[in-house]
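agent: user wants the structure for DUF742 domain-containing protein from Streptomyces lannensis. delegating to structure tool.
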Amino acid sequence: MTPPRRRRRDPEQQPPPEPAPVGPGGKEGEQRQPERLYILTGATDGGERASIDLVTLIVTCADPQPTATPEQSALLRLCRSPLSVAEISAYLSLPFSVVTLLLTDLLAAELVQARAPVVRKATPDRSLLEAVMHGLEKL
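agent: tool returned. relaying tokens verbatim.
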């Protein structure tokens, strides 16, 4: 059995290129470009960011205002129950740094509260365990 022969394509035989997708403006060839992250955060003057880490819990204090950006509105709707900043970042598909800037603006406007995560002790208090044990023995 002999291998098949390769044939060169003539420029005339190539399939025509696919038409360019139509953009949101209706113009042919215009594609929708993703928005830059600095547009999502608004014009910042380089001020201080809130001290927020990945496990800080965020809770909404108020409903979104009509003047809020879509990202801020989504964040406020999402945080009706406490969520960590890492979860917010994942749900909104935004980097942590962008979420931090959005939260800084919302914290300054007092639309959200930042809470430290609940830290549980690794070992329970021994005196509490002994008191429970003595109480159970008396029953």
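agent: one observation worth passing along. The mean pLDDT is 76.
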